[in-house]
Amino acid sequence: MLDKRLSLDDFVGRLSDGMTIGVGGWATRRKPMALIRAIARSKLKDLTVVAYGGPDVGLLAASGKLKKLIFGFVSLDHFPLDPHFRAARQAGLDVLELDEGMLQWGLRAAAMRMPFLPTRVGIATDIVNQPGFKTVTSPYEDGETFIAMPALKLDAAILHVHRADQMGNVLTLSPDPFFDELMARAANKVFVSTEKLVATEELHVAENARFHLVERAVISGVVETRFGAHPTGASPDYGIDLKHLKAYTETAASPEAWNDYRSRFVDISPEAYLKAVGGAEHVSALPAPVY
Amino acid sequence: MTPEFSLAELCIAAAAEAWRNDGEILATGITVLPRLAAGLAKLTFNPALMMTDGENAFVSEPVPLGPRNGYAPKVEGWAPYARTFDNLWGGKRHAMVVPTQIDRYGQTNISTIGPRAKPKAALLGARGYPGNSINHQNSYFLPSHNNRALVEGEVDFVCSVGYNKARWLNSQKPFGLDLRLIVTDLAVLDFEGPDHQIRVRSLHPGISFDQVQDNTGFPLARAERIAETPAPTSEQLHIIRERLDPNGQRKTVFKDDPVGDRRAA
Questions:
Q1: Angle, nearest 10°, between helix axes A83-90 and A55-62?
Q2: Cβ A291–B127 below 8 Å, yes or no?
Q3: pLDDT tens digits for B37-46?
Q4: Residue B119 sits in which domain range?
Q5: What is the rounded CA–CA span in Å between residue A77 and residue A163?
Q6: What's the rounded Cα separation, in Å, for the pair B34 and B12?
Q7: The whole model's pTM is what?
């Protein structure tokens, strides 16, 4: 039987310097944070990250892993800005800033193995004055000119899911699948962290069909990491840890504050992390956020 | 007798007008004041409006802001982000958002302030502004009407499309460009001046045209007769206070929650 199970170390070993990596989730929701922390602990460098960003981006920026960021936004929702992203950006981090829909379109083009997809989005804004954009004119009677949104090809995508089997069948049970399916299809390799690794029949796919994110051939590796999205939320299993996120935002105040956070929450094992953030019961009981 | 009202309540009632004639579309108000305004429009003159819980569900009545205290959102549909994008690309939406800067063309910025390579301030990023502004009608709320927000020249990084022909592709008007209202702490502006010049539509009670012009980085058109922004009615105030915002989040929009009629201040 196919077995795509990986340890965190195996996962890191499948990545290499200079890769373009798409990160699933949205802002403070269903981010593969255990995988992000594993990358932060590793020797990997010069990464280009593609994301609807949250603390994943800030944590990698603060850990010096980013060469470039391709993003629609970086937000912590309940807190206005990720201060680590802000500091990196203001220090001159190379970025390609996109409209949220353009990011979706670039992933979709890559997923369909097209060089670009046409869109009106971006026309007459400074987004398309960044390097790399060209226009395309409709060959039909309308003759309208569009932005040719280039494909965003990913070397790897990393996603957090609720349930997976060892063959790579995955379920995202949260109310919004975000753009994880496109991230996966745009990537050469796809690694998921999963709340629970279960036997195929325990996925109850017949009842959960609409939560089956993508066919298993797309998935390269599965890492079981319970609470692997913390401090972001993995509704319906647990909500966002707003207190932890607030403490995280305060660690941009000084190098000492960040080093302290790193040693307490990043440079440790997943088991030690869970203990440090309050344990399984605490995380399981985190309430759904109110927007 | 006119009931007493705060500046926030005056602006909520004024901003609700943005959605009066929109019919059955998605109303999106981002941040406290626009969200309350969209809710007020739905609960009064445009019940056909669709709105979301701010997350993944369409709701049949606006969700009160802040702690729910047992209130369960009245869910009527599914609204994942992919559907929101599809909806807006289809043009059936009117958003009111809060940009950091706006210019004479109605172009706005929430990306960076200062030089692009090493910005003085990195903000959120363009988010959905480019797509919103070329696909459906848009209005803006600016809580501090001054020359730093309503800037001379162009905004530092153009995130949303405006009536600036120099930027249009092949000099063609961008497909869905349709800017409606700008509500500020001083006045209500629109784009109905000559050639879509930004125009003062109404002045908040106790505010003069000169005061508005002095705090704006570009010349404003004046309506033939500039009205006073209407005071919210007792019904509107009741809905705002009791139904939409029982936790009083509107009181945090403006410093010290000033009264709506500045002559009374």
A1: 50
A2: no
A3: 999 999 999 9
A4: 7-252
A5: 26
A6: 7
A7: 0.96
Residues from chain A contacting residue B87 (CB–CB below 8 Å) = none
* Per-residue model confidence (pLDDT) at position B227: 95
Least CB–CB distance from B127: residue in A85, A100, A145: A100
CATH of region A8-100+154-229, choose from 1.10.3720.10, 3.40.1080.10, 3.40.190.10, 3.30.40.230: 3.40.1080.10
Helix (H) or strand (E) segment spanning residue B130 = helix B129-135
- DSSP-assigned beta bridge partners for residue A196: A163
Between CA A176 and CA A77, with CA B19 as vertex, the angle to 5 degrees is 35
Alpha-carbon distance A76 to nearest alpha carbon in chain B (angstroms): 10
- Please report the beta strands in B143-209, taking only residues with DSSP state E, as ranges in sequence order: 179-184, 187-190, 199-203
Residue A85 touches partner B, C-beta closer than 8 Å: yes
Could B125 and A127 be called an inter-chain contact, meaning their C-beta atoms sit closer than 8 Å? no
A273: contact with B, CB 8 A cutoff? no
Please indicate if any CB of chain B lies within 8 Å of the CB of A122: yes
* pLDDT for res A289: 81
Q: Give kind and range of the element (H or E) at residue B138.
A: strand B137-142
